[in-house]
Amino acid sequence: MDEFESLSHSKWECKYHVVFIPKRRRKTLYGQLKKHLGEVFHRLARQKESQIIEGHMMADHVHMLISIPPKYAVSQVVGFLKGKSAIHLARVYAERTTSFVGQHFWARGYFVSTVGRDEAVIREYIKHQEEEDMRLD
């Protein structure tokens, strides 16, 4: 039997494949920033009772398989991850401490797809995303 999460009155399994990019698809996600940003995403996801099951950052986009409880909208969690991570990056790497009106790190949109019973396929796709991108180039 499958493992389901539970809330007080429900059992659930809500997993999503999410992809988003930096503004103007800048190739900024590399090196130390890449490792640090992964930790930030995991910490932020826990704040929304979510869990990043699989994730991979390319130089110009982020893939993640994330489990989100049904009490949160996917757009709410993705918006939270993108917004708070952008603020964190600006404070740590741009050494800013004020608000960031008009400045954005992430592009506005994102891709999301429900995972359903294809979780193993999606996990393998995310793990091997870098090799696949190189093969297509």
Walk me through the structure:
The structure is a single chain. The chain contains four helices and six strands, in the order βββαββαβαα. The protein has helices spanning 31-47, 74-93, 119-127, 129-136, and strands at 5-7, 10-12, 15-20, 51-57, 62-67, 111-114.
| Average pLDDT, all residues | 83
> Reading side by side through the largest sheet, how are the strands ordered?
4-5-3-6
Judged by helices, strands and strand pairing, the structural class is alpha+beta
Uncertain stretches of 5 or more adjacent residues: none
Gross geometry = globular
Total of helices: 4
Biggest β-sheet strands, sense, barrel = 4 strands, antiparallel
The fraction of residues assigned to DSSP E strands is 15-25%
Alpha carbon gap, first and last residue: 41 Å
Helix content: 25-40%
Per DSSP E runs of 2 or more residues, the count of β-strands stands at: 6
What radius of gyration results from the CA coordinates? 16 Å
